[in-house]
Amino acid sequence: MTSALTIYTYDWVPSGKHGPRGYVRDIRLRWACEEAGLAYDVQSVPFKDRGPDHFAHQPFGQVPYLQDGDISIFESGACLLHLAKKSEALMPRDPKGEAETLEWTISALNSIEMVSVPWWFIGLSGADKNPLEQWMQSRLDRLHDVLATRDYLAADRFTVADIMMADALRVPKVLAATEKHPALRAYVDRILARPAFIKARADQIAHFAKAD
């Protein structure tokens, strides 16, 4: 029977050393579903020639977006929190644990990825000096202090906050910037060793490879 959950991603993205395969953000939703044992399908939208149906579900023409019955939701963070409502494996149900999960999920987006993405893009430009370097290192310093004292971000256990944060940190250029942050490196290694992530990544790469 077809799952009520459908994750939409591109039909193809470039491969190679700097290609995004294995990093497209539908992996966050795949990973969450694998962790929680939620049945899901994956459908494609064109990487090129994005059409009106795509923009109707995702106004910026990006991926992923999630279909859950008659609910359509976009932005990976919003999709993760939607999935977290479906399974305690992704977010605890006690008020304190839920609040910690929410704050760290949003923190990964607003305090880390908001800095790391523009920092990374400026680095791609070949500029001699990155004006965001100090800001980036400050955020990594603060996060390192937190993860030096705990194995997970929220509720003393794995949650969707760890999916979001580990995925933001595992981008090769960002991960390289954690060279002086051993607790961050250990955290990323620990979270990415989970079987659900390994399967989600392999499945995403295989999905794009079919269209080569």
Explain how this protein is built.
With 212 residues, the chain is of the alpha+beta class. It has two domains: 99 residues, Glutaredoxin (3-Layer(aba) Sandwich), CATH 3.40.30; 100 residues, Glutathione S-transferase Yfyf (Class Pi), Chain A, domain 2 (Up-down Bundle), CATH 1.20.1050.10. The chain is 53% helix and 9% strand. A four-stranded mixed sheet has the order 2-1-3-4, with helices on one face. A hairpin with a 2-residue loop joins strand 3 and strand 4. Helix 1 crosses helix 9. The chain is globular and about 45 Å long.
Model regions low in confidence, pLDDT < 50 over at least 5 residues:
none
Largest sheet: 4 strands, mixed
Question: How far is it from the N-terminal to the C-terminal residue, by CA?
Answer: 29 Å
Count, helices: 9
Whole-number tally of structural domains: 2
How much is the radius of gyration in Å?
17 Å
Please report the first level of CATH classification, the CATH class of the largest domain. Mainly Alpha
- Strand tally is 4
Dominant shape: globular
Question: Reading side by side through the largest sheet, how are the strands ordered?
Answer: 2-1-3-4
Instruction: Tell me what the CATH architecture of the largest domain is.
Output: Up-down Bundle
CATH-assigned fold name of the largest domain: Glutathione S-transferase Yfyf (Class Pi), Chain A, domain 2
Key phrases:
Glutaredoxin, globular, four-stranded mixed β-sheet, 2 domains, 9 helices, 212 residues, Glutathione S-transferase Yfyf (Class Pi), Chain A, domain 2, alpha+beta
